[in-house]
Amino acid sequence: MQYKAVKGFKDILPYQVGTWNRIESEAKRIFELFGFNEIRIPVIEKAELFARGIGQDTDIVSKEMYTLKDRKGNFLAMRPEATASVIRAYIEHKLYNVYQVQKLFTIGPMFRYERPQKGRRRQFHQINVEIIGDPGPRSDSELIAMIMYFFSSLGLNDLILNVNSLGCLKCRGPFRTELKGYLKRYFSHLCPDCQIRMETNPLRVFDCKVETCNQIIKDAPSMLDFLCNDCANHFDSVRLYLKQLGVNFVVNSHLMRGLDYYTRTTFEVQTKELGAQNAVAGGGRYDNLMKEFGGPDTPAIGFAIGVERVVELLEENAVQKEEGPDIFLAPLGKEAEDKAFIWLQELRKSGLKCEMEYRSLGLKTQMRHADRLKARKVLIVGDDELIKGKGIVRDMISKEQIEIPLNNIVDELIRVNSLNS
Ligand code: HAM
């Protein structure tokens, strides 16, 4: 019986990990500059947390959540996103007592039972960022500027930033009524799901992937025409600050995002290169979620980057050269093998990346292995060398060979390693 990974779940292979590490370390470097701290949260939560936070009528909750019952009958879910968990943690640990504005990020796997395709998996990874505690438009603009800076620092400069405002509960009401009226006119052309959504949560019709619904929603009323004064001013300021920060964007009044918790600013970073799954990051303000979860009335804004999609965009560099060992030890004969095994450990402790074969092999085979591992240099030591107290170091690029004394082998190899090949 040969096992395969579960559909939609993928291995990240050694030759791909370099790109992942680059993305994550660049994110950490930049977030630190902007004053963010890391938080790590569990991958499983009570299912209700997501139903309440993201919204019962969203696809994520109603169709895509991996749920399970534990032995005590608790209804749990593998997290489909991180925001609800971060807010749960903020309230549970009273992080607001530490410092009122908390800037947090977290990196890890999320789970959604979606149909796998290019750029879409059932286990995928997000770099998730939240600013909790500041209501002002400067936070919105700064956060968006940070995400664009992150992408450009990875060399991704052709991304399109879409921004929109979803208003607040006050102005969303009249918009919902107007939208519902509009959708009613096309009721018989809506897909069965959207016919229900029209009644329960008409904004979710914007998420529908069915072509006829897409056509209908194209001419739907715009939320921006319904913003109350406060929300309109907030959105004006966000756009102004973005311009001041030199961030290019397009206003997309149909950007509704697939989660119910958003208020005011929403945004999505899109690419033309990944086909249907074109969003590499998305987020927005969610000023009511904290209260909804029983916490203090605290505004917040955040976003999540889809790491798989960024990896795909960086695909050119994804097949990164694995760094080979600095030194490959090639002993010949039992005595040399025993010595080399000890040297190997000492060399590693002194900071050199070293390898050797544990099987007794001829020199030719060992050289072939060194080559395959992309070793930069090989130390050859056989019986003759042991008697002479001198080993041979072969540079695998220039093919030059030199002799080095064996009595101080670690220092000698550090010296040799520092010579340019
Ligand atoms: P989201 O738009 O659902 O937002 O996901 C953010 C990003 O995760 C997407 O833009 C996409 O790049 C990636 N993504 C989503 N689903 C998949 C999938 N099945 N396979 C691969 N990548 C995927 C959120 O999750 C919000 N929690 C973001 C947020 C944080 N809003 C406020 N704070």
In short:
The protein is of the alpha+beta class and 421 residues long. The chain has helices at residues 14-33, 47-54, 59-62, 83-92, 137-153, 169-185, 192-200, 211-218, 229-244, 289-292, 307-313, 315-318, 334-349, 363-372, 383-388, 409-418, and strands at residues 37-38, 44-46, 67-69, 75-78, 102-111, 123-132, 160-165, 250-251, 263-270, 279-285, 300-306, 327-331, 354-356, 377-381, 390-395, 401-405. The protein has two domains: 14-168 and 228-318, BirA Bifunctional Protein, domain 2; 323-414, 3-Layer(aba) Sandwich (Rossmann fold), CATH 3.40.50.
Give a written overview of the molecule.
- The chain has about 425 residues and is α+β, with helices and mostly antiparallel strands.
- The protein folds into 2 domains: about 15-170 and about 230-320, BirA Bifunctional Protein, domain 2; about 325-415, 3-Layer(aba) Sandwich (Rossmann fold), CATH 3.40.50.800.
- Helix content is about 40%, strand content about 20%.
- It has 16 helices and 16 strands.
- The strands form 3 sheets. Strands 1-5-6-11-10-9-7-8 form an 8-stranded mixed beta sheet. It has a 5-stranded mixed beta sheet with strand order 13-12-14-15-16, with helices on both faces. A 3-stranded antiparallel beta sheet has the order 2-4-3.
- Strand 15 (about 390-395) and strand 16 (about 400-405) form a beta hairpin.
- The structure holds histidyl-adenosine monophosphate (HAM).
- Histidyl-adenosine monophosphate binds near residues 83, 112 and 302.
The number of distinct structural domains comes to 2
* % residues in beta strands: 15-25%
Query: Helical residue percent?
Result: 25-40%
Poorly predicted regions: none
User: What is the fold-level CATH name, i.e. the topology of the largest domain?
Assistant: BirA Bifunctional Protein, domain 2
Largest sheet: 8 strands, mixed
Number of strands: 16
Instruction: Tell me the overall shape.
Output: elongated
User: What's the CATH class of the largest domain, please?
Assistant: Alpha Beta
Mean pLDDT: 94
Associated small molecules: histidyl-adenosine monophosphate
Q: Determine the structural class based on helices, strands and strand pairing.
A: alpha+beta
The number of helical runs is: 16
Report how far apart the termini are. Answer: 48 Å
